[in-house]
Amino acid sequence: MPITSKYSDAKVEQILAEVAAVLEKHSAGPELALMIAGNIATNVLNQDVAASQRKAIAEKFAEALVSSVEDKKH
Questions:
Q1: Annotated domain spans of the chain
Q2: Which residues touch 30 (CB under 8 Å, ≥6 apart)?
Q3: How many Å apart are CA 17 and CA 12, to the nearest integer?
Q4: What Å distances lie between residue 6 and 3, 10, 11, 34, 54, CA to CA?
Q5: Crossing angle, helix 30-48 and helix 51-69, to 10 degrees?
Q6: How many CA atoms lie within 13 A of 15 on its CB side?
Q7: Which runs of consecutive H residues, i.e. helices, occur in the chain?
Q8: Are residues 71 and 61 in contact, defined by beta-carbon separation less than 8 angstroms?
Q9: Which NCBIfam families does the entry link to (predicted)?
Q10: Three-class SS of residue 41?
């Protein structure tokens, strides 16, 4: 069953394009871009998620990230 998001694809793509433009403006290579993405994730978890739920959500986030980059065998 596919995962359904409460956010529209258009909204996600718009924000992603804006973030990508900022990274490009600053000539951020892959290492810096990933470091910034990690820092954003950490800040969101620490500022917007209850302490009691942070580890579980971080683990789910990590699982989703790994899943999204694994080679899919068809």
A1: 28-69
A2: none
A3: 9
A4: 10, 12, 10, 25, 21
A5: 150
A6: 5
A7: 9-25, 30-48, 51-69
A8: no
A9: PRK13689.1 (NF010242)
A10: helix
Q: What's the pTM value of the predicted model, to 2 decimals? A: 0.79
pLDDT tens across 19-52, in order?
Answer: 999 999 999 999 999 999 999 999 999 999 999 9
The count of other CB atoms within 10 Å of the CB of residue 69 is: 6
**Residue 18 neighbours by CB under 8 Å, 6+ apart:** none
Tokens linked to 4: 């359904």
- Residues with Cβ < 8 Å from 58, sequence gap 6 or more? 41, 45
CA dihedral 62, 67, 71, 74 (to 10 degrees): 170
